[in-house]
């Protein structure tokens, strides 16, 4: 039994006001167990509380150290992109930012990155060079195994409680888990061994210091290998593709709206200038930048659909006229889509499908959002709200600032993507009002099917 909702009041009850009546549930947990074990993302009840309390301290400070990590990997990514642009080829921005966020996240979590950027950038699929291109398998091994494992885990959702029958002979996720563990296991074992040798952390009060990685922070509170393994992997999953998704669709929309790109660039040059590294305060002070990110999160929420399971009988009500109260019996699967909710004209106004960052700055805030804050839920809400929200805003802002310091125009090149990228009738669908020219797809998180191929103009070249 399942039901589907896009009602803000229902979602508010599921996530916040009736929090104890809903959980991820045994089906979701079993579907995700091969990949995520029992970490924070995949636990309920006391186990979830334990994991959340262990990870939370690490996110409670806006650590300056993140910016060093972002800067190194952003500069590496943008340097590679500029070199490729000079040769006249379009770049798959989605691929580039996925490597940027993977290298940043692994360094932030483990203190060591997977060097996915060192594999080099792919050429457009139909180009001669794409056929000749050889990638570095080791550098891509982790990324492709991680993608495969996520996709296979998400597919299990289609079969609900019967998913295990589909994988009666082989666990499809487990087969790729080895490539993921090949990277993680030596780092964890090394860190645990060093801790044991040095007796580091003894008498430690568990406080997080500026230099701590999530791994070193976890080692201060537990020696349990499985807990540390699952926790770091869960946070990698939660934090990596979500930020890559937002950066992908932000650039797509900036390419489609040169006026918005120009205004954003003016703010960046005004606050940070053309070369300086943005600081934490710079990022906080850029109101238009924040509005562009929020508008991207509204139209393209990285977690477009989510699920909970009722643990006891509950009645869901809604203020929306015509919505009758809904009885939800214990055991019912409740699917909710913030993607659809974020595009509803009755909640966001007649221009809901338009990309317009000003809706987060002008009178529309008072009209729509302030009286009904649950209409905007990219990070969820309630006790399980995203732990990495601030980290994500910092990382995404940092990359956009660094990019637009160097680039003054962006051209979307859908003709370069694989031929099958846009299905017939897609752009005329009522859900996009003819404004979406990329094919949105989703495994656990949303992505642009076929990639996001763009060309960019280097700022210095024209100024
Ligand atoms: C644009 C970026 C991001 C978006 C839109 C996002 C969104 C979300 C959403 C919707 C959830 C709730 C999932 C659920 O309960 O079913 C969540 C949970 C979580 N997120 Fe994020 N996230 C982002 C970035 C990050 C980053 C960068 C990190 C960490 C580095 C992170 C860490 C987490 C964790 C640990 C949870 C689990 C919280 C819990 O279950 O108690 N997220 N995120």
UniProtKB/TrEMBL annotation:
Xref: PANTHER family: P450, PUTATIVE (EUROFUNG)-RELATED
Cofactor section: heme
Gene3D superfamilies according to UniProt: Cytochrome P450
Alphabetic keyword roster: Heme, Iron, Metal-binding, Monooxygenase, Oxidoreductase
MF GO annotations: heme binding; iron ion binding; monooxygenase activity; oxidoreductase activity, acting on paired donors, with incorporation or reduction of molecular oxygen
Keyword Heme: yes
Pfam family, one: p450
InterPro entries to which the protein is assigned, alphabetical: Cyt_P450, Cyt_P450_CS, Cyt_P450_E_CYP52_fungi, Cyt_P450_E_grp-I, Cyt_P450_sf
Binding, heme: 386
Family recorded in the similarity comment: Belongs to the cytochrome P450 family.
Protein name per the record: Cytochrome P450 52A3-A
């Amino acid at each position: 039994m399942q039901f589907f909702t896009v009602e803000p009041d229902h979602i508010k009850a599921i996530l916040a006001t009736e929090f104890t009546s809903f959980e991820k549930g045994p089906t979701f947990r079993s579907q995700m167990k091969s990949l995520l074990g029992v970490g924070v993302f995949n636990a309920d009840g006391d186990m979830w509380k334990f994991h959340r309390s262990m990870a939370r301290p690490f996110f409670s400070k806006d650590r300056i150290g993140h910016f060093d990590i972002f800067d190194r990997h952003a500069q590496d990514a943008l340097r590679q992109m500029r070199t490729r642009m000079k040769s006249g080829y379009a770049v798959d921005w989605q691929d580039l930012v996925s490597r940027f966020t993977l290298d940043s996240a692994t360094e932030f979590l483990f203190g060591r990155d997977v060097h996915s950027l060192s594999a080099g950038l792919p050429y457009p699929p139909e180009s001669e060079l794409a056929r000749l291109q050889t990638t570095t398998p080791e550098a891509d091994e982790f990324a492709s195994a991680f993608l495969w494992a996520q996709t296979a885990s998400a597919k299990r959702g289609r079969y609900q409680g019967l998913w295990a029958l589909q994988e009666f002979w082989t666990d499809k996720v487990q087969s790729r888990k080895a490539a993921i563990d090949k990277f993680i296991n030596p780092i964890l074992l090394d860190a645990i061994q060093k801790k044991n040798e040095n007796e580091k952390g003894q008498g430690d009060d568990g406080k997080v210091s500026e230099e701590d990685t999530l791994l070193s922070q976890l080692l201060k509170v537990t020696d349990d290998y499985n807990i540390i393994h699952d926790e770091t992997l869960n946070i990698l999953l939660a934090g990596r593709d979500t930020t890559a998704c937002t950066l992908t669709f932000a650039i797509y929309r900036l390419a489609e709206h040169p006026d918005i790109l120009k205004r954003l660039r003016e703010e960046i040059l005004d606050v940070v200038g053309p070369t300086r590294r943005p600081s934490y305060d710079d990022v906080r002070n850029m109101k238009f930048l924040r509005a562009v990110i929020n508008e991207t999160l509204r139209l393209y929420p990285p977690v477009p659909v989510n699920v909970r399971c009722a643990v006891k009988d509950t009645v869901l009500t809604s203020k929306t006229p015509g919505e009758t109260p809904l009885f939800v019996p214990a055991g019912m699967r409740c699917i909710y889509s913030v993607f659809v909710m974020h595009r509803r004209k009755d909640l966001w106004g007649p221009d809901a499908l338009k990309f317009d960052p000003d809706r987060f700055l002008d009178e529309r805030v008072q009209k729509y959002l302030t009286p009904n804050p649950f209409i905007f839920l990219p990070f969820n809400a309630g006790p399980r709200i995203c732990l990495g929200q601030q980290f994500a805003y910092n990382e995404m802002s940092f990359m956009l600032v660094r990019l637009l310091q160097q680039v003054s125009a962006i051209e979307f090149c859908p003709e370069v993507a694989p031929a099958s990228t846009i299905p017939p009738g897609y752009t005329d669908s009522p859900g996009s009002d003819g404004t979406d020219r990329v094919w949105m797809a989703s495994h656990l998180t949303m992505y642009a099917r076929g990639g996001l191929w763009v060309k960019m103009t280097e700022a210095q070249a024209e100024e």
